[in-house]
């Protein structure tokens, strides 16, 4: 038999989530709050399992668990709205995701930057070149919750063998980041030229 810790370590080694109830179906929710609850936002009555935990607090004698008033779906919609509002909010979210990945997945590069430091790097880049991706030249967007938007901004490590650290960060669009992970600038340049030359004026999307 695996011990609980053993299972977590095994999942961690495989690069998988180490959350105990990754789909939110923690039976403790039913025990503490009943089977269903009405969402304060959409007004629908839903299974308590569709509501996320809120951070707990401690009294002298016990740990008090809390659950959110909005259902998971409304919460996600609200978060997407909140973190898409400005580039700074969007970067805050991306940094949270990076740190989470770092904790839960194996082989992720460490994040050695605070939000403040990251924003300082962002502002320097914006001052020099605006919201234009330094690699592809397209205008970068910051829209969450609308699928895989390739113009969205991403936090890129200039050198992939180094951490998320000072001197190694730039903001590029997701497409540029994806391509960069696979190929060098030289290969990208040559192949983009090939495709552009070959399709040329006949290209129809
Ligand atoms: Zn709701």
Which short descriptors sum up this protein?
205 residues; alpha+beta; Herpes Virus-1; 2 domains; two-stranded antiparallel sheet; two-stranded antiparallel ribbon; 7 helices; 42% helix; binds zinc ion
Task: Describe the structure in brief.
This protein has 205 residues and is an alpha+beta fold.
According to CATH, what is the topology of the largest domain? Herpes Virus-1
From the N-terminal CA to the C-terminal CA, the straight-line distance is 56 Å
Number of structurally distinct domains: 2
- The amount of helix comes to 40-55%
CATH architecture of the largest domain: 2-Layer Sandwich
Topology:
Elements: H1 4-13, H2 27-33, E1 36-38, E2 45-47, E3 53-58, E4 63-67, H3 72-84, H4 87-104, H5 115-129, E5 153-157, E6 169-173, H6 174-182, H7 185-199
Antiparallel strand pairs: 1-2, 3-4, 5-6
The structure holds zinc ion.
Provide structural commentary.
- The protein is of the alpha+beta class and 205 residues long.
- The protein has two domains: 4-75, no CATH class; 85-199, 2-Layer Sandwich (Herpes Virus-1), CATH 3.30.40.220.
- The chain has seven helices and six strands.
- A two-stranded antiparallel ribbon has the order 1-2.
- It is elongated, with a radius of gyration of 22 Å.
- 13% of the residues are buried.
- Bound molecules: zinc ion.
- Zinc ion binds at residues 39, 41-42, 44, 70-71, 73-74.
């Amino acid at each position: 038999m695996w011990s609980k810790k053993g299972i977590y370590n095994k999942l961690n080694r495989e690069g998988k989530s180490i959350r105990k109830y990754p789909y939110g179906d923690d039976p403790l929710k039913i025990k503490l709050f009943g089977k269903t609850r009405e969402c304060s936002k959409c007004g629908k009555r839903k299974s308590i399992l569709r509501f996320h935990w809120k951070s707990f607090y401690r009294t002298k004698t016990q740990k008090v668990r809390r659950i959110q008033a909005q259902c998971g779906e409304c919460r996600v919609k609200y978060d997407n709205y909140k973190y898409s509002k400005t580039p700074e909010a969007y970067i805050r979210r991306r940094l949270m995701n990076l740190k989470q990945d770092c904790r839960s997945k194996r082989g992720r590069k460490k994040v050695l930057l605070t939000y403040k430091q990251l924003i300082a790097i962002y502002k320097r880049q914006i001052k020099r070149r605006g919201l234009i991706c330094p690699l592809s030249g397209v205008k970068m967007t910051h829209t969450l919750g609308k699928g895989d938007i390739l113009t969205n901004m991403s936090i890129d490590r200039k050198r992939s063998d180094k951490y998320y650290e000072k001197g190694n960060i730039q903001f590029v669009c997701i497409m540029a980041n994806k391509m960069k992970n696979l190929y060098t600038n030289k290969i990208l340049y040559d192949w983009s030229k090939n495709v552009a030359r070959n399709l040329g004026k006949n290209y129809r999307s």
